[in-house]
Structure formats: C-alpha cells, structure tokens
Amino acid sequence: MNDIPKRGHRTSTVDRQILTLAVPALGALVAEPLFVLVDSAVVGRLGTDELAGLSLASTVLLTIVGLCVFLAYATTAAVARRTGSGDRAGALQLGVDGLWLAAGLGVLLAAATWAMAPWAVELLGARGEVATQAITYLRWSAPGLPGMLLVLAATGALRGMLDTRTPLVVAASGAVANAALNVTLVYGVGMGIAGSGFGTALTQLAMGATLVIVVVRGARAAGASLSPALGGILGNARAGLPLFIRTLSLRVAILLTVWVATGLGTVTLAGHQVVNAVWGLVAFALDALAIAAQALVGHALGAGDVAQARSLLRRTLQWGVGAGAVLGLLVGLGSGVLALAFSESGDVRHAVTVGLLVAAVTMPLAGWVFVLDGVLIGAGDGTFLAWAGLVTLAAYVPFALAVRAWAPPGAAGLAWLWAAFAGVFMMARAVTTGLRARGDRWAVSGA
C-alpha cells in the first residue's frame, strides 16, 4: 500500500518534466509548419497553379532543411549528455561548434538551391506554369537557408540545456512576422509567390541571428571558446552522419510521395500540399513530446540512470499515443472546414477533405513513432536509426509505386496515397523502432 503514493508521485514528477519541456517545444516546433500553412493560405488565393507550385517548392526547401535536422538532434543529444554529466562549458562548446557548421552549410546550400532550382522542380515532374511558380518561390526563399540552419543548431544546443522557452519566444515572434510579411509582399507590394518566399527568408534570417546571440552569450558566461575549431566542427559532422542518413530516408519517402501526387494530376498535387501542411503541423506538435523525451533521456543516460531513461520511455509513449488520438479526432472533425480555407476549387476542397480523413486515422500511430524516434536519438542510437530508415523506405516504395500506377486522379488518388504514406510507411517505422526499444542495446549510459 505504501508503494502506491510513491509510484504516483514518480509518475507525476515525470509528467511535469515532460510537460515543462514539451509545451514550450510545441510552440517552437509548430512555427515551421505554420510558415507553410500561412504560405499555403496566402498563395492558395492566387490560384491552383501557384498552390501546386508552392507544394513542389516547399517540398524541395523542407527537404534541404530536413536533411540538416541533425544539426538540432545530434546537438541536443550530445549537449544533454554533457550537461547531465556536469560539464556545462563543454556542453556549450559543442553548441558553438554546431553553429559554425550550420553557418557554413547554410551558405553553400543557399547558393546551390538558387542555381539548381529548375533541375529540382523538373525532377519532381512539374511542367509549364506550375514549374515556373515553383522555381520562383525556391529562388526567392533560398537566401533564408543560413538562417534556417542556424535556428536548428542553436535550438538543439538550448534544448540540450533543457531550455525550450527561448526557442518558443523566437519562433512565435517569427511566425507573426512571417504572416505579416507574406501578406504585405504578396498582395501589398504585388510580388505574388515571390513575396511569399522572400518574406519567409527574411524571417528565418532574423530568427537565426537572435538565437545565435543567445547561445553566444551563454558560451561566454561559461568560459567556452567562440572561435571555429576544426576538430569540434568535424566531430559534430561525424556525430550527425547517422542521423543524416536516417533523415535522408525520410525525405526520400516524402519526395516520392510528392512525385506520386504530381503524376496523379494538379488537383491531387494541390490537395496533397494542404494535407501535407496540416500533417506537418500535427507531426511537429507530436514531436514536442519527442523533444522532451530526447533531452530528458540524454540527461538521464549522461548521469548513468538507465532506470530513469526507461521510465521516461514508457511515459512519453503513453503521452504520444494519447495526443495522437486527440489530434486525429480534431483533424477528422475539422477536415471540411480546413479544406474551405485553402482553395476556391471544389475539386481541391473535396480531395483535401478525403485526404485529411485518411491522415487523421493514423495519427495515434504517428505519436508512437515520433516519441520512439526522440528517445532513440536522445540515447545516441543514431546508427540503428540510419539502418531502420533504409529498411522502412524499402518497405514503402512498392506501395507508393502501386498508387502511382493504378490509383485514379483527384480525391480517390490522394486517399490511396495517404493510406500508403501515413499507414504503411508509418507502420514500418513503428515496428522497427518498437522492437529496438524492447531491448537493452539503446540504453548506453555516460557522457
């Protein structure tokens, strides 16, 4: 009988730890999909070609940024472990090295994106006016890439220090500024889709600069060096390589999904843009729990407390599945209303409604997947995640190709496509990570 209050107290303490990190992280994470949603709503009023072009361009842009998410994830895990072991200066030094890596990669990728925009759009199968709109958006948004990558690296360092509030404030301010800039530049100045891309670029550069200042101040206070250290930068790159491979497999799956949607016609592609934007918003909301798990598990293993790491695994999984069920219900019930907000076309609205209903059913599964990803990243189990990513991609490809070959255009095709992506692909991820979490090889303690 005396154990019951103690167990209840431990659960309550873990819940508070999770929520203390997850709630601010939620606000910061949803900023990026909110950027896409705002862009979709603003550009969608320009016409179907513009919305379809935005779908392709934002997919390319988010793929580039997504492949660099190791700047956040690897940094969070490493900084959390170092902080858990009591080495604050060393933790912040890792954060500074990550900033230098992000800045260099950002400049190179911005130049490459501008130069290769036509090739990237053509590779996704776009032609005519849709391709023109996609290239325009990509080139105007490319200058924001250094800012986007600096946001990733700085946010990763702050999360590792268990600070999710500062990224929240910066992200919320950025979301408001982005909305105002987009409306002003697209309609007030008359730039069209170019204004949407340029507004987002300006916002991301400002956000990156703000977060860099915060990390640099903390590093100075702790006595960490601000100079670029080749060894530290290369160490960050090596630590991030498995997560890069893991993310590459995810982005290939997403690009494959867009390629299939493109082949099923403009209505399907435009509808996919809206469904994917809503899915991204929900995914990042669920990922807030994964961020909490990532930081807390890293701290626990850094301090040598494997039992606490396992307790966090169990509890965050319960939160993930429950949150997925609630969000799925909300998306399903609101699918018709959401469709009205993003297009004037009746065909596109119907496709969006059907696609959202399919996606809503799979959201509890998504909650399970995202939390497990966060736990394993926090544990530094990147090599396994890299191999698992390749396996799950191989499982998804035949289903995606079958949809491209046999699904009808319009709403039915979008429903089959999302059944393949949110159903088959996510189930493959759930099985691989779930089996890993049942064992002991991921729970390695020490900084």
Automatic annotation (TrEMBL):
InterPro entries given for it? DinF-like, MATE_fam, MdtK-like
Tell me, in one coarse class, where this protein mainly resides: membrane
What membrane topology does the UniProt entry give? Multi-pass membrane protein
The UniProt transmembrane annotation reads 21-44, 56-79, 99-117, 137-156, 168-187, 193-216, 248-271, 277-298, 319-342, 348-372, 384-407, 413-431
- Keywords attached to this entry: Cell membrane, Membrane, Transmembrane, Transmembrane helix, Transport
Q: Where in the cell is it found?
A: Cell membrane
Q: Does the keyword GTP-binding apply?
A: no
Which Pfam families did the record assign?
MatE
- Provide the family line: Belongs to the multi antimicrobial extrusion (MATE) (TC 2.A.66.1) family.
Xref: NCBIfam families: matE
State what protein this is by name: MATE family efflux transporter
